[in-house]
UniProtKB/TrEMBL annotation:
Transmembrane segments: none
Positions of the Serine aminopeptidase S33 domain: 27-136
Organism: Gigaspora margarita
PANTHER family named in the record: ALPHA_BETA-HYDROLASES SUPERFAMILY PROTEIN, RE40534P-RELATED
A Pfam family that the UniProt record links to this protein: Hydrolase_4
Protein name listed in UniProt: Mycophenolic acid acyl-glucuronide esterase, mitochondrial isoform X4
Length: 264
């Protein structure tokens, strides 16, 4: 396996940085693009585990304002990250001259790939790892950052130190986030896109109920497959190999459908 650094021009005042992992004897010449979650980078444990061990060629990248990429980020800028993903997909097709077989995201990145699919319907296989469904309910901010709430109300922003560098959360960003409507996944065209959702039964950040909501809106099989990994938390700690197997098996099963029935 070779890891090659990538730099993707966004056409704005910043570039996105990523990595290409080419695998010997990959089942396809196409690539899978992986998207990291909130307060994270392409070097996160779960994303890196998939990138290094999946048998398919893989691209990982840092969203704007994260990791090595330029630009800035906010907690609710999912639409900006959709456009980041669109830039990377265009780069793969125009510069690398490869097809994009699938896009896979974890947590916030999973919401991004679902939003992308609902808007563009031009990537055949979409993998949702623990996406939040109900963004209108922001109680997880209160649950995980209770010591920050008073300062948030007083100053209008707080700084979280548990990400890659200081991460600023503003009240207006939280308001934007609560208006995200993930029911838009109903716009995913069944004849063009198939979706896999993998969620841990013990997810402490994004409730597993959201996985069933996605199944109701996108399903039934074969359009959407739902896998609940018993005992797994949000980061799939102690369940990463089970997660990898679920993703790889589904890709292999649906690759034939993509090759035979899909046309961009």
């Amino acid at each position: 396996m070779n890891e090659t650094p990538l730099k993707v021009d966004t056409g704005k005042d910043f570039a996105l940085h990523g990595s290409l992992y080419l695998k010997p004897n990959a089942p396809s010449d196409a690539v899978i693009i992986l998207c990291h979650g909130l307060l994270s980078t392409r070097r996160s444990e779960t994303i890196r585990h998939i990138a290094e061990n999946l048998k398919y060629h893989v691209i990982t990248f840092d969203f704007q304002g994260n990791g090595e990429s330029g630009g800035s980020t906010t907690i609710g800028n999912l639409n900006d990250e959709v456009e980041d993903l669109r830039c990377v997909i265009s780069y793969v097709r125009s510069t690398l001259k490869r097809e994009v077989l699938g896009i896979c995201g974890r947590s916030k990145g999973a919401s991004v790939v679902l939003l992308y699919a609902s808007m563009y319907n031009d990537v055949p296989l979409v993998i949702n790892l623990s996406a939040r469904y109900d963004y209108a309910n922001s109680d997880y901010i209160e649950k995980f950052f209770p010591d920050k709430l008073e300062k948030l109300e007083k100053d209008g922003f707080v700084v979280l130190e548990d990400g890659p560098g200081d991460y600023i959360v503003r009240k207006e960003d939280l308001i934007v986030m609560t208006k995200i409507d993930m029911s838009c996944v109903k716009n995913i065209i069944k004849e063009k896109v198939r979706v896999l959702t993998v969620h841990g039964s013990e997810d402490e950040i994004c409730p597993v109920d959201g996985a069933y909501a996605y199944d109701k809106l996108i399903g039934p099989e074969p359009y959407h497959k739902l896998i609940i990994i018993e005992g797994a938390n949000h980061g799939f700690k102690n369940h990463k190999d089970e997660l990898l197997k679920a993703v790889e098996s589904w890709l292999f099963e649906n690759q034939s459908w993509q090759l035979i029935g899909y046309c961009i």
